[in-house]
Amino acid sequence: MSKIYLSPPHLTGKENTYIQEAIEKNWIAPLGHNVDGFEEEIAKYTGVSGAAAVNSGTAAIHLALSLLNVKAGDIVFCSTFTFVASANPILYLGAEPVFIDSEPDTWNMSPSALVRAFQQAEREGILPKAVIVVHLYGQMAKMDEILEICNQYNVPIIEDAAESLGSTYKGKQSGTFGKYGTFSFNGNKIITTSGGGMLISDDVTAIEKARFLASQARDPARHYQHSEVGYNYRLSNILAGMGRAQLQELDEKIRLKRSIFSRYKDELSFIPGIQFMPDLEYTISNRWLSVMTVNEKATGLSISDMIMALEKENIEARAVWKPLHLQPLFKGKRYYSHQEEINVSEAIFTSGICLPSGTALTIEEQYRVINSIKNLVKVRV
Ligand SMILES: *Cc1c(COP(=O)(O)O)cnc(C)c1O
């Protein structure tokens, strides 16, 4: 039986056209017209004024924090229920992350935890320099509530939209609500350049500054002159070419991801103890990964039992992200739970499981996963 992976890259075949062209023009070094084209096309797709292509989603978050002048000793609020890359750049700058729990409707940043974090910060006389909001697995966070709170304190938002390219909230694209939005084109993401990222904003001056910082912050002079710290973060012209081909397929990939999710839900949600990631009204998730929760008491199966049993069938399933406030790396950092004694991200962490969701997954392969899960639960019940 062939291996079914969680979310492998899915090439369209059109990548070659762009890559070939770059090679023929002998223009593979950083920058070049694929980079310009990819930036313009992402800006157009999402409806923002500017985009800077970089070599990872992590680099895009690092640049966004730098543009907001985050420095050693500053505080940055960040969703706790996410991949470590959302918060690592806070540490690169010597700043202090404060983690915010999820709420049950979207599994994303809890507005009530965010309010308590702000109230405490205000009492202590040190407001955060930025708030990093993650749209987990493609699901949009409650942006109206979060924006209202952040605007009240005049603190800018960075949306880590690495997993949510193409998702919308009240018709508006993810990544376009905050001062900055960041995307990732890592191999497992909905579109990929093998590795890459993008920083977007309506502030074109800031995007221009990001390009400057991402190319070693070289001053406009005849000789090599530098007045501030820069990074080597630009995307290569070859990889940008892959991105342009992949972006053309994004809407189709979203359609496929959403139908994969619906099929899992239709086939499995009748099982007592199995529930799927909720859908918030007025939002459309790209359903980057299909995620469900498994109640151990009701199904007789822990998530690690299930992951191991699926592995024996050559099916790759994975646990959800471990909340960052539980990571050894962030031991002792502040954390605000959804409500007193109610830790939403911790509960999802102990019961959540990500199912194979690649856009090249065939219906037959998906039924292999579905039937394996049905059999597992039956055996135990
Ligand atoms: C993938 C991912 C990133 C990092 O993107 P890279 O391109 O791998 O650096 C950041 N945040 C989240 C939530 C991600 O899933």
TrEMBL record:
Family membership noted in the UniProt record: Belongs to the DegT/DnrJ/EryC1 family.
Origin species: Cytobacillus purgationiresistens
Stated name of the protein: Pyridoxal phosphate-dependent aminotransferase EpsN
EC number(s) per entry: 2.6.1.-
Domain of life (superkingdom): Bacteria
Any one GO molecular function term: transaminase activity
Pfam families the record matches: DegT_DnrJ_EryC1
Alphabetic keyword roster: Aminotransferase, Pyridoxal phosphate, Transferase
The keyword Transferase is annotated on this UniProt entry: yes
Top-rank EC class of the record's enzyme: transferase
